[in-house]
Amino acid sequence: MSSRTSEVGPRRTADNPGGDLVVAGVSKRFGGVPALNDISLTIEPGKVHALIGENGAGKSTLGKIISGVLQPDEGTLTFGGEPLTMRSPREGLGHGVVTIAQELAIVPGLTVAENVYLGSQIATAGFVRRREMRRQFRELAHHVGFDLSPDVRAGNLSTADMQKVEIMRALSRNAAVVVMDEPSAALSGRESAALHEIIRSLARRGSAVILISHFLSEVLSLSDTITTLRDGRLVRTVEAAGATEDSLIEGMLGRSLSSVFPDKSIAETPAETVLEVDHLCAPGVTDCSFVLRRGEILGIAGLVGAGRSELARAIFRDAKVTGGKVRLGGSELGGHSPHRSINRGLALIPESRKAMGLMMSRSVKENVSLSRLSLVSRLGWIAPIRERRTVSRLMDKTTVKAAGMGQSVSMLSGGNQQKLLFARTLMCSPSVLIADEPTRGVDVGSKRAIYDLLTEMAQEGMGIIVISSELEEVLGLAHRVIVMRHGRIITELSGPDMNEQAVLAAAFAETTTH
Question: Fewer CB within 10 A of the end CB, N or C, for the chain?
Answer without folding.
Answer: N
